[in-house]
Known about the structure:
Blueprint: E1 2-3, E2 11-12, E3 17-18, E4 23-30, E5 35-36, E6 41-51, E7 56-57, E8 62-64, E9 71-73, E10 78-79, E11 84-86, E12 89-90, E13 95-96, E14 101-102, E15 107-108, E16 113-114, E17 119-120, E18 125-126, E19 130-134, E20 137-142, H1 145-168, H2 192-199
Parallel strand pairs: 1-4, 2-4, 3-5, 4-6, 5-7, 6-8, 6-9, 7-10, 8-11, 10-13, 11-14, 12-15, 13-16, 14-17, 15-18, 16-19
Antiparallel strand pairs: 19-20
Pfam family, one: Hexapep
Protein name: Gamma carbonic anhydrase family protein
InterPro entries: Hexapep (IPR001451), Transf_Hexapept/Carb_Anhydrase (IPR050484), Trimer_LpxA-like_sf (IPR011004)
Amino acid sequence: MIYSFQGHIPVVHPSSFVHPLAAVTGNVIIGKDCYIGPGAAIRGDWGEIVLEDGVNVQENCTVHMFPGKSIRLKSGAHVGHGAVIHGANLGANCLIGMNSVIMDDAQIGDECIVGAMSFVKAESSFEARSLIVGNPAKKIKEVSDEMIAWKTAGTRLYQQLPADCHQSLKEVEPLTELPENRPEQKDFYQTLKSYQRDHG
């Protein structure tokens, strides 16, 4: 669902994937290898929204702002399920946890991790590699090399997902019973705790 608004037509690189149940409106620029999940709303009706290469905005996320603002999600930014980005700028290779809210004019530095369900107040600013949690959100420590390696590996999966969707995602009628040859799915990613256990 791609909509023009007051003469602005979204620009989406062909390597990116915008799910048909997402809504992208107006002055939005989406770079290479980005994934936009179903239910996501990226509203460039009142200002410009730029997603640099390799960004993912997952299911049921909202990206919007007050009139006259422009915001940027830098390369590799990872926006988890249900998060709201309202007028905030996200640094490169950062992680915004599920159901977090990042408010107007907040600045999230490169390689920051925002914990799930955190509330980042308007005009907050966090330096690179901050681990940010809570309501209101505060920096509790530095993001370790191990944590950012885990995050980066997870984001690579989402950077591969657009190509996988272009290749294999299609609308179908559901089966009425399990087939004998139902394909198995691989276990190819770990939680942070299991990653730390194996790499510690």
